[in-house]
């Protein structure tokens, strides 16, 4: 097979007032690492395409995503360590039994290993988007969101009377009225 090397010179001019970043999907080490992180963090929770906050040239993935990735890595390491300990213990017990030195069943100590725990609240993509939009993630807001209750979503065609129905339900149940359009408009206006 003939191996021909083809070289080309590309001249890039930036007419914008802001920097532009280039990367190769196949060879850029940072891009490949970020793809690996996103695959681990996102898993099958999202569709193939999802929105994330924009980032400036040279920035990394959102901190929420990186923290979640590190937490998942720690969890996997803890699980691997526990599995290794259990296998070692089983192997040691099997050897002792083979040599006739096993303690009677009633005298055997049972080692209990705690389940590894990683505290992950909410999904990292949603947290990053909420932070970007300026939606309050304080503990008070979280506590308010965690209260148990009924959420009623009124959905329908335009001019079908959704707003009036929602207002009547709120009045009847003494509930809070939340308009998605209003929340998004307010968040955009704040930026």
Automatic annotation (TrEMBL):
Highest rank taxon of the organism: Eukaryota
Entries under InterPro entries matching the protein: Hydin-like, Hydin_ADK, P-loop_NTPase
Pfam families referenced in this protein's UniProt entry, alphabetically: Hydin_ADK (PF17213)
Domain Hydin adenylate kinase-like stretches: 152-190
GO cellular component: axoneme
An example Gene Ontology biological process: cilium movement
This protein's name: HYDIN protein
Organism (species): Callaeas wilsoni
